[in-house]
Write a structure and sequence with these properties.
With 95 residues, this protein is of the alpha+beta class. It has one domain. The chain has helices spanning 3-10, 28-39, 42-45, 55-61; strands spanning 16-22, 65-73, 85-92.
């Protein structure tokens, strides 16, 4: 069972999921860097973490409704590590 499926199972209808995640980049060049990182050392160095996952889509597909979403880079700036694109948001389960 995935983490999102487990959250859906244990949250009551109307329950809220607050999330802060690094996500897939919004430019083709940055996504290429993420794919390269994910195929090589990144998961081994960071406990199985993958930088290029589309977390917002995964949350929606798990049955949650996105209530609010803010995208930003951390650290800020044009060039950063593959994990710099982030989202901060709230999702809920239908009542």
């Amino acid at each position: 069972m995935t983490g999102l499926a487990e959250l859906r199972r244990v949250l009551r209808p109307g329950g809220r999921l607050f999330f802060l995640e690094h996500v897939r980049a919004d430019t083709a060049a940055a996504r290429r860097v993420q794919r390269l990182a994910d195929r090589t050392l990144w998961p081994r160095l960071f406990g199985g973490c993958h930088t290029g996952r589309d977390t917002v889509t995964a949350i929606s597909r798990a049955g949650f409704t996105i209530e609010s979403l803010r995208a930003f880079r951390f650290p800020a700036g044009r060039i950063g590590p593959p994990s710099s694109p982030h989202v901060l948001g709230v999702a809920s389960l239908p009542r």
